[in-house]
Each structure stands twice: as structure tokens, then as C-alpha cells.
Sequence to fold (64 residues):
Amino acid sequence: MMTLFDDEQILKAYTKDIEENKERETAKRMIKKGKMTLDEIADCVPSLSLDELKKMEAELLQLA
Fold:
């Protein structure tokens, strides 16, 4: 029974990780396009805070 519980928790954590990664990649694409403000992107991707988006934007600008 304990193994089943552990497997369930691992699967949930893995699924959450994948979703968060997809949302981060979506936000990066939106920032790169430059057609929306960070506030607008935060509304579209509510799992990311405005501070996180600002950090992402700074990282992307350094890479450009």
C-alpha cells in the first residue's frame, strides 16, 4: 500500500513539473514576441508571478 501511495505522489509531482515547464516556455515565447506587457502575460499565465516574469525577461535580453 505504501508503494502505491509513493508512486501516486511521484506521478503527481512529475505531472505538476511538466505543466510548470510548459507554462514557463509559453511565457518565454510571449516575452520574445514582445506584443504583450509582462502584466498581460501574468494574466495569461497566472502560475508565474510578475517578479518571475521580470527575471525571465532579463535572462532573455541577456541572451539576445
